[in-house]
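Fold it.
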Amino acid sequence: MSVSIIDRLQAIFQDVRVSEFMNPDVIYVTPDKTLLHVKEIMRIKRISGVPVVDDKKRVVGIVSLEDIIKALEGSYIKDSVEKRMTKNVVCLKETDTLQDAVKIFEKYGYGRFPVVNDEEKLVGIVTKHDIIYFLLAKLGIMYLHDKRMEEVLEKGTSLITGEVLEKGKADFVFHIDYFDVNMIGIGASKLKRFLLERGVDEELARRIAIATYEAEANVVIHSESDGYIYCFIDNEKITVRVEDRGKGIENLELAMREGYSTAPDHIRELGFGAGMGLPNMKRYSDKMVIISEVGKGVIVEMVFFRRDRGEDKGDSGKTGA
């Protein structure tokens, strides 16, 4: 992606609050842990920095991958975090803007910044990738209807993470039959049951089912085409992708507005078509991107981070960092 596009998006969304694009599921440690403990967390979670918090969850330090490398070279990897952590931590406020965050990244050059609330308590973390993913998601909603659907469908690349989503290796697949409006929700219900059987937290499964239900309903009501629900599960996240090859969405900006609907009267009389489908998908997912091309169809991809998989819940949540 060219710098000019990033700059243009940054200018458009410069007043967006940090709370809207930070990762709220941040991994952290307490000062009494050892650097060896932090090293293992970084290895398992594949991250390069961990905030340190006190018993009130206020940020008191940070440990980076560079600190771990120095500890290994200096043979003090078993020292306490409190002894070796960087104490003068630069934090972002959740009320800071995207423009503020970009300036902080440019000024200090660090890869991540903890986010605190008005009480100085840790509420999230922001990496450069979080900003890029946020801008890409906005780009997806605003511009990706110009992208060729066939190219996206053929490559199977995630619109959010960039990883390959092989349909043949999906953990769950459901064929959406658009002929019968009474069948709306069958796929979402089966997916929820499947997730619960796989040990997914009930609240997370509920959120996924609600968002998937809305996507399924849109296929039946608007696409005039069959569709498919694909679900991919890993330790960090659950990705749901709903595809159809129908008539597409003419104006994504309008479609994202709450209450906007093109559903015919007979569909509204059945209780559908209230214009909350896409807004609800965005509300219940952690990240969402839509692409559409008129006459080619729609792809909705939603990512749900797995807060139910923290191995060391005393010290960590989940993060995509």
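Confidence is low (pLDDT under 50) at residues 1-5, 141-147, 259-275, 310-321.
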